[in-house]
Write a structure and sequence with these properties.
The structure is a homodimer.
Chain A lengths: L19 H20 L3 E2 L5 E3 H4 L10 E5 L12 E3 L4 H10 L8 E10 L11 E10 L7 H16 L5 E7 H10 L5 H8 L2 H17 L3 H12 L1 E2 L3 H8 L4 H16 L8 E4 L9 E10 L7 E8 L13 E7 H10 L13 E3 L7 H13 L4 E3 L6 H10 L4 E4 L9 E4 L5 E3 L15
Parallel strand pairs in A: 1-5, 7-9, 13-14, 13-15
Antiparallel strand pairs in A: 2-4, 5-6, 6-12, 7-10, 8-9, 10-11, 11-12, 15-16, 16-17
Helix pairs in contact in A: 1-4, 5-6, 5-10, 6-7, 7-8, 9-10
């Protein structure tokens, strides 16, 4: 412990870590998300944290962000694991997993995956380099029923409601509507328009209009039609509105029919929480139909809290089968860290224990241990105090750890057990075999 | 999908991944381990997957195995995250965590941590480069009560029993006993003996005896005494046996008193499942008192399934406080992969769903969706079939996914719901509001 040997521990930017009381709430979030995903019959998959670089690079667009692994050795040039990289999302691993285990999966393959992902971003405020994503996807062979386009946002809606993150909006759009509409008004590069339209929330309609003119050479009439379309939002009825704005065509009709179906399926959800929003473009090339984007109503500038969409061919880089899919992803760490930072989440108790069993004396320690064992066998979470310390010290420990009940085994023969409710201060005689607590306080 | 663009997906040696039915069992293991740790009031902590290299290297002994992170960039020389490495265990991160958050923790700090760790081993059969460890530790300020030396193996015993991995033995020893005993017979380098004695299970007593002579210059009498000590095993009574073998001394007495206490505390556990085993040395330098090592009774050659011990000063590299600790770690992936490989674990069903709701027709799809929603609101895990396909196709899907109940909403107005138990073949009328299944089959 000489002066020069101390390594001062400091947080590493972009790699979040929580105190136990906050971790307890995060754990509850993870449990709830998983429970909802499973309630809809999705199975759990985890993949290794690493993939071969050629797998990660198969879409060829994110090389800046990939962390590669190297072994730390006396001679750094001798590293031999440089062909491995940490996964930067859970979609590429899913595609590889489905291709690799194709013959052993039952389709439609419905899986959820809750794992950490890594992105080698430059350190900056609010950017995470390690974070947890909660993905849910369905992959099928050859064709994928439209019912899933409605089921996924329903599941995500249930998850977000359950997490009590405050008001949110799930926006839904359809790439076929955008592409069909653009083609219908004579635009030859609809994907180009989608890429530019994706910037609408960030740069506003005027700047988007300008870009459409300068970069793609659209006419003023075309620009106005594109911007009018992006203004459209609402329920299933927007389908008619868009049909009136546009000039028909098979692709537009198909998209409108799909969008209408999804919106009608979700019509039972609370008003305004799911909207057809024609401004959602999702810049990524691989989306081909329904696209999703969720936002917090009270923090529109915070950006997307979940997103996803339908892709025609998930695993085409890895297998010669046609595997359409649809998926959504919740950016857990991003939302959670925001609610911690703004004080919405303050943390649970410092111990998961429901009961702290007091040790009256060394002689009576066996009785304390037996009492704890009885309570545990009945499913309670129980700490036994670790020594026959002065009562005051034991009480202080229980109160600092915010354990809701203190249990006093008999201090003398012939006396009964007593239990104290720390919230109410009430202390009563109790039997460890039959005792039932009042309701636990909820944790946030 | 041109020929040259296909990247054939293959498993990466040392990075395990499971099919959904096996992952389901792994998930249950993780749930059970966590539940037991929490039942004893330990809080959950997760740390980032990476630490600063100077933190990882603070013990200065494992540089060969550390994976460092580098960003994949056009110019590989420009990588700037090389000072970060993936953690290779959960003890170094715990030490750093406790030092960093020292003022915000309540001591004794009792935490569990279930996370992946990485070791840059050369790829070889049975060696994992990414695996999950399940650690449980207690850290206290200045001194740590001996009760924890007995509580930790009790918790681990409960976990391993609960996992039904077959017969196991938790061996317990005490470094003070070894060191005091060696010193008592005139050995000047007791730590050297511990390092060599640690090889006993691997190379046998003859080879160990030889090494003690050639490397440390022990006399034949000293070697015989060391090997005799390593033969000792049993319950609390071994304390007297060792006292007879050795030549006293304060350190030996202290160690025997500690070992005796721990063994007496655990005397209620099934005979033979916890033994004082004087052959356990645990080569690592930082253990100072109780040490643990668990093995499978039917696979002694498989080596350790869990291990741990007491260390006098956990975080001395990071903070100027005296923080003794004690911990145990279960090598989850190692045990789990073995039981998968030898066929003990064959996997659960392919879906977590308990019920598959059949869709009689497009017209009746809303009723199927409403039925599923009702069952889910009652806590059941439910898949709704994704389209109004032919009944046979729907039944095949349910049976391939091994979903235990099929639910038939009314096929005509006025008819009732019916539910079929796939195990018994029995099909009965049922009400989604009140139905209760027979017991679920257990999953292994």
């Amino acid at each position: 412990m000489a002066e020069d040997r101390i390594v001062k521990p400091v947080a590493i930017s972009g790699f979040p870590e929580w105190l136990p009381q906050v971790r307890l709430v995060e754990q509850q979030w993870l449990d709830r998300i998983r429970a909802t995903y499973e309630r809809y019959g999705f199975c759990s998959v985890e993949t290794p944290s690493v993939e071969a670089l050629e797998v990660l690079m198969s879409k060829g667009e994110t090389s800046q962000e990939v962390y590669t692994l190297n072994r730390l050795q006396a001679d750094p040039a001798a590293g031999s694991d440089a062909r491995l990289g940490l996964h930067f999302d859970l979609t590429v691993p899913l595609a590889r997993y489905v291709a690799q285990h194709f013959n052993e999966l039952v389709f439609p393959f419905k899986r959820y995956q809750i794992q950490r992902v890594w992105r080698g971003e430059r350190p900056q405020e609010g950017r995470f380099r390690e974070f947890t994503q909660c993905d849910i996807d369905v992959i099928n062979l050859d064709s994928l029923p439209l019912s899933f386009d409605a089921e996924l946002p329903r599941i995500i809606h249930e998850v977000l409601t359950d997490l009590e993150i405050g008001g949110f909006t799930l926006g839904i759009n359809n790439r076929k509507v955008l592409q069909g509409f653009y083609e219908g008004i004579g635009i030859t590069d609809p994907i180009g328009v989608i890429r530019i339209a994706d910037k609408l929330a960030k740069i506003g309609p005027n700047a988007v209009g300008q870009l459409l003119g300068t970069e793609l050479g659209l006419t003023d009439t075309q620009i106005k039609a594109c911007l009018d379309l992006a203004q459209v939002s609402g329920g299933a009825e927007v389908v008619d509105e868009i049909a009136r704005l546009g000039s028909g065509g098979a692709l537009l009709d198909e998209g409108l029919s799909e969008l209408g179906f999804v919106m009608r399926e979700l019509a039972d959800l609370p008003a305004g929480s799911v909207v057809a929003d024609l401004s959602i473009a999702r810049g990524l090339d691989y989306y081909t139909g329904t696209v999703y984007e969720g936002t917090l109503n009270d923090a529109p500038g915070f950006g997307s809290i979940c997103s996803g969409g339908r892709y025609d061919d998930l695993a085409g880089s890895f297998i010669r089968r046609h595997l359409p899919g649809i998926g959504m992803s919740i950016g857990l760490t991003r939302i959670f860290a925001k609610l911690v930072a703004d004080g919405t989440i303050t943390g649970g108790p410092l111990s998961p224990a429901q009961v702290l069993v007091i040790v009256p004396s060394d002689d009576r320690r066996p009785e304390a241990l037996a009492t704890a064992a009885t309570l545990r066998s009945r499913g309670f979470k129980v700490e036994t105090y670790h020594a026959a310390d002065k009562l005051k010290k034991q009480l202080t420990y229980g109160s600092r750890k915010q354990i809701p009940y203190l249990w006093f085994p008999p201090f003398e023969n012939g006396k009964s057990h007593e239990v104290k409710n720390m919230a109410s201060g009430e202390q009563v005689a109790a039997d460890p075999q039959t005792w039932t607590p009042s309701t636990w306080r909820s944790v946030r």
